[in-house]
Amino acid sequence: MADKTEVVLDRAQVKKAVQALQAFLKTKSTGDSLFLDDTQHISLLFTLWKIPKAAQTIRIPLPHGQRPDTDEICLFTRDEPNMTSEQTQRFYKKLLEAKGVKSISEIIPYKVLRTEYKPYEAKRRLLGNFDMFLSDDRIRRLLPSHLGKHFYERKKEPLSVNLQSKHLDRDIQSVIQGSSLKVTNKGCCCMARVASSSMSADEVTENIEAAVQTVVAKLRVKGPVLKLIHIKSQTSVALPIYTSDLRHLSVLEKANKPKEEKGTAQKQAKKKQTKDTKQTDTTAEGKGEKKNVKKKKAEEEEEEEIPQLVPIETPSKKPKVEPLKKKQLEKAPKPAAAKKGTKAQSKLTKKAGKTESKVKRKVPKVK
């Protein structure tokens, strides 16, 4: 198995790449420079064999400082109990002076950051006024919600420092003059700032060697780690300084073979389980069908024994009574009229009879 410590750089090749990069930057600066300070950052581009499973941040101490003394550095501190913001600033200034720290240009307590730098414009102004930000490790987790995304887009997020350390000067200098590498689980490439164009070629090569050793030692990846290493500036092309051997690829394939075998074995086991479950399901279904057939037969026998009920024919709907009543009511006055007529006729006949009798009585008898 290939170990992480097998990454060996060719010092002569690295120095040649650094000299070629510096010559390119000099030609660019003489032709296109508009400012006196035209130093550029020199960075290392790492390409990994595998994408890491978890994100990681690696602190890289460098033998030669990459930042000039003119850089403005801001320190975020916590709020001391029973002290105002001005008193906390004085307290930490005295602490830094006592420990011999002279590189911090301004101290901002946490309360001042929350109140005075809450507006968007104030945060942008703070970001542009300083080159680097440090923070007390006791309040580091509270800062992202108050700083905003621009600090992280510009890669100026504050680095945590233990202000209670006995060797505070050494720790702060190692953080300021060192570097950090952010390894993400979203890709296989990562970059770290290592030197500046104002440094000599030997200093840059020494910083590169130290950075590669620390990265290889601290990366949480098994087997061969680094596939390619390039050196580049902000405006130049990436120059290769290390390429991994092809035997690392064979090692990775060997390491992946047992995983593939396990995967195939698991797939086969799953297939067998599915087949067994299907067989059991079919047998259970057959048994269930037999039981269902028996149940159906028993139900049919029971149905045969039970006599069938013949439905009684219900008569059609009775005729409505209302129209009959209406007819009767319509027919009723006719016989009444007839009776009246008969009565009138009888009366007339009676009268006629009376008159006839009267007439007969009046007629005298002829002798």
Overall description:
- The chain has helices at 11-32, 85-99, 110-115, 120-129, 144-147, 150-153, 168-177, 201-218, 247-305, 321-331, 333-362, and strands spanning 41-48, 56-60, 73-77, 106-109, 132-136, 159-161, 179-183, 189-196, 226-233, 239-243.
- The protein has 367 residues and is of the alpha/beta class.
- A 4-stranded antiparallel beta sheet has the order 8-1-9-10, covered by helices on one side.
- Residues 336-340 have low confidence and may be disordered.
SSE map:
Blueprint: H1 11-32, E1 41-48, E2 56-60, E3 73-77, H2 85-99, E4 106-109, H3 110-115, H4 120-129, E5 132-136, H5 144-147, H6 150-153, E6 159-161, H7 168-177, E7 179-183, E8 189-196, H8 201-218, E9 226-233, E10 239-243, H9 247-305, H10 321-331, H11 333-362
Parallel strand pairs: 3-4, 3-5, 5-6
Antiparallel strand pairs: 1-8, 1-9, 2-7, 9-10
Helix pairs in contact: 1-8
Assembly state: single chain
Major β-sheet annotation: 4 strands, antiparallel
Tell me the series of helices and strands, N- to C-terminal.
Answer: HEEEHEHHEHHEHEEHEEHHH
Residue runs with pLDDT of under 50 for 5 or more positions: 336-340
Percentage of residues assigned to helices: 40-55%
Assign an overall shape. Answer: extended
The secondary structure category is alpha/beta
Number of helices: 11
The end-to-end distance, rounded to whole angstroms, is 182 Å
Strand content: 15-25%
The strand count comes to: 10
Q: In what order do the strands lie side by side in the largest sheet?
A: 8-1-9-10
Mean pLDDT, to the nearest integer, reads: 77
Radius of gyration: 55 Å
